[in-house]
Structure prediction request, 291 residues.
Amino acid sequence: MEDILRPIYQERASQQNTLGILMIEKRQNASPITDTFDVVLLVIVKEAEQSVFIKHYTYQEQKAALHIVSEEQLREWMLLGTNRKIVDWLFNGKILFDRNEYVDHLKTELRDFPFYGRKIKMGIEFAKLIRRYTDGKAFFDNHHYLDAYNHIVHSLHHLARLSVIENGFHPEITVWNQVKQIEPEIFKLYEELVTSDESIEKRLELLFLASEFLIHSRTRSGIGHLVEVLEKKESWSFNDLINHDELKHYSVDLAILLEYLVEKNMIEVTNVETKGQGIFHRYYSASKKLS
Prediction:
């Protein structure tokens, strides 16, 4: 197979812009790792006009995909976890070309999973968890049980990913297999939600109670990165926070996370007068109880 695909990647390997090339083969029928393709070629380049460029090929009744990805895009995926296949590809792909051991160093970095990178990823997952939990609870309180169910499933998934990261591992596509080993309590909650014979209302009621406890127990570790940023200044406007180089990755989930933490007295709000009568600017700072 490698010989057949050689003409596709060999030209890329000769270009100075190419940092590394990996081949990922489908390991089982209909594997989600390769999007059902028999083989994927991942070409990492230093710079590119398009951050992701993909071509599909057919050969001997089989399918192949070529993914050309910029280093910047790859780093973003690794940080934000928005392309979970990429970790599997880097860990398990066969290295076909490696300029100055770039791919080998990347694999070492993934295995070591630097603590700073973990803190950012935990913060992003915790913000997503709070978003899903809060929205789900609102739907539940308004008796929209199917919408609440959808959100609580997603919140448990973020809780599972948070747990995996907290334990020093990268969340994989088969995250529930990881969680079953690492945090069986969360796995059991998920299992009860999807397999229980109880009514959907009763299942959700129990799940929200249990989730509240699990969220509370992870809040300090989940907001560690956010607190580090907050402590760099006495107080922050929301606009300054959402445009901060690191916090911008929290995206639309940052506002609801802040409000959740204000309710829990973990973040303090200072009102500053505006020109308008009785209207105040709202500024945020880390609570002294977190020190």
Summary: Strands lie at 18-25, 39-45, 52-59, 62-70, 94-98, 236-237, 267-273, 280-286. The mean pLDDT is 90. DSSP finds twelve helices and eight strands in the chain.
